[in-house]
Write a structure and sequence with these properties.
heterodimer, A: Helix Hairpins, three-stranded mixed sheet, B: Mannitol-specific EII, Chain A, six-stranded mixed sheet, 6 strands, globular
């Protein structure tokens, strides 16, 4: 897993966290358990998002943001066990992910893909 | 939902040696993955969550948690420390017992939040008479959780 892919994964995790921390379900669970978030928790995540974005290639980031509008929190997805895209379930050519080069995308839906 | 059914004895360490939060999280994550990059991403996720507010809920208990693309399904890990872990908990006291929860971004029925709530209830039960100190091995710990859940 290369560093650019790790940055994309972290970026998506932050976007997921930003969405989920606003959800009533999470707030309710946190209240019941007694977790307290700092008042500036959102700023902390936004700062982290900015620092990741600063290191990413501009075109890659554009690609991420375009796909985020379309796929929300499912832009970076795993290749499933039998070689299918974790987003659209299309078959991923076996040579694609193992081949050399940068970050790979699903030939069908365009999502960023990774093996875990 | 039964918590004991989600527990894997390989993910339980009843003799933690770490004395600070970051090391303790690393120690627990080492039970879940041997892949350095995966471990680093998970640690980063958990530490970011801690920066927003400690998951040390007081009385020696911490429930670190987060969602990550690095897991296929909900993963739990349990750690117990005799010495105590400096954790920046809400009561500023050391943590002796940790219940780690990591979930994938999408999970059926929002199992993540259900599990988080369940873990919090079980931790309160484990505190009674210091029950969490009694198990001497992971099998005994899982049996204790099963016993607690059958009484709830």
């Amino acid at each position: 897993m290369n560093d650019v892919l790790v940055s994309l994964i972290k970026l998506q995790q932050i976007d997921i966290a930003l969405d989920e921390l606003e959800s009533e379900d999470l707030k309710s669970a946190y209240n019941k358990i007694g977790f307290k978030l700092k008042e500036n928790y959102r700023d902390l995540l936004e700062q982290e998002r900015k620092s990741i974005i600063a290191k990413l290639d501009k075109h890659l980031l554009e690609q991420y943001e375009i796909m985020r509008k379309k796929y929300k929190n499912s832009v970076v997805v795993p290749v499933l066990n039998k070689g299918f895209c974790g987003g659209c379930f299309a078959s991923i050519p076996s040579g694609l992910v193992s081949g050399r080069g940068g970050v790979k995308t699903c030939p069908n839906c365009g999502r960023f893909i990774y093996y875990r | 939902m039964k918590l004991y059914k989600l527990l894997n004895k390989k993910h339980i360490n009843l003799n933690m040696v770490s004395t600070n939060k970051k090391d303790a999280l690393k120690e627990l994550l080492s039970l879940i993955t041997t892949d350095e990059k995966v471990g680093d991403v998970l640690l980063d996720t958990l530490m970011k969550r801690e920066e927003m507010g400690s998951t040390g809920i007081g009385k020696g208990i911490a429930i670190p948690h987060g969602r990550s693309l690095m897991v296929n399904e909900l993963v739990l890990a349990v750690g117990r420390s005799e010495e105590g872990i400096k954790y920046d908990a809400i009561d500023n006291k050391p943590v002796f017992f940790m219940f780690l929860i990591i979930a994938p971004p999408q999970d059926p029925g929002n199992q993540y939040l259900v599990t988080l709530g369940r873990v919090a209830i079980i931790c309160q039960e484990l505190l009674k008479n210091n029950q969490y100190k009694k198990p001497s091995n992971p099998d005994e710990f899982i049996s204790l959780i099963q016993t607690i859940e059958e009484k709830l």
